[in-house]
Amino acid sequence: MIFRRGGITGQPLESSEVPPFRFSRIEFDETKLKRGNSSDGVVGLDRENGEERENVVDLRFFVAGLELGRRDAAALFFLVSVLSAAYGWVILGFVITYSWALGIVFISVVNDLLGKYTSIFGTVWSGSSLGVKKLSGFILMRWAVRDALTQILGLWFFGEIHDQYSFFKLFLRLKLMPFSVSSPWVPGYNEEISGFLFAWFLMDTIVSFVFAVDSWVTIANTRRGGGREIVKEGCYLLATMIHQSIQLKCLELIMCGAFMRWVLARVLGRSFAVLFQALVEVYFIVAWLIFYFAARSKDAHLSGRRFGRRELEGLIQGLR
Question: Which UniProt keywords apply (predicted)?
Fold first, then answer.
């Protein structure tokens, strides 16, 4: 059975009359179909004994105009595997490092408030063990939320980019944004990137404010509560001292933001700017912990209870 533009006929078409076959965005043209035999990975037509039979081996891989052979596909698969493994190690390192830092800060501050002296090695060991045991799951959840929102914003602003190289660079930088200070700036897409950075800044500010004291809620929570209960209690404590929490967050945004880093880098150098903001970030970790204790104290006072030295000692004893 032979196909013609007008329908089905018994006369074959001339080679110059064979139209290209189209399906969605994938196009098979006659010039590509004549490249070779079945080892080329295309559909070939063989004539034997006056009859036509169709030999189908496999199809080339078409992605927005990119053709990949078997070697290219294998190289692409290897590259994706290596990048995925490296990204997994980055996530693991981020979670462990952040858990250690928060646990050490918590132990140090509580011991200082209680007037207890412990060695540096004992503080680091106790704090790192506490952080890994109590905070690893929460930090991973917070990273997952920020990463998901970042990818959604990326698809919204960069979904129409057809340049594969630029899209790949943007994709890699977006994957690093939840735990880095890198900016996804790629020349040629200033309008899209500016809109994305503005939306991402607002989103990240809201998310970081919601999770501001949830780390300390997770450490102090001796019950087996889920992430929803932890976030709910954290929001309640923020609402207990809402004006102080907003002021503290605004000050943190100013001191740890990109504008302050840019000013310090221009005046004193990039290395000093990074070191200064790292120290300031530790300062605000301590500040949010003090805020958490103050909010707990105010909430206990409103409920007719007390939150003081005995409760802190009980908290430390309960974590051991």
Answer: Membrane, Transmembrane, Transmembrane helix
For residue 273, give the 3-state DSSP assignment. Answer: helix
Count of domains in the chain?
Answer: 1
What DSSP assignment string belongs to 150-189?
HHHHHHHHHTT---HHHHHHHHHHHHHGGGS------TT-
pTM of the model: 0.72
Q: What is the pLDDT of residues 191-201, one digit of tens each?
A: 878 888 888 88
> Given the structure tokens 């169709």, which residue do they identify?
54
Residues spanned by the domain of 55: 2-59
CA distance 282 to 285: 5
Residue 22 · residue 32 · CB < 8 Å: no
Cβ neighbours, 10 Å, residue 213: 25
How does pLDDT run across 183-230, given as a tens digit for each residue?
Answer: 666 666 778 788 888 888 898 899 999 999 999 998 887 665 677 888
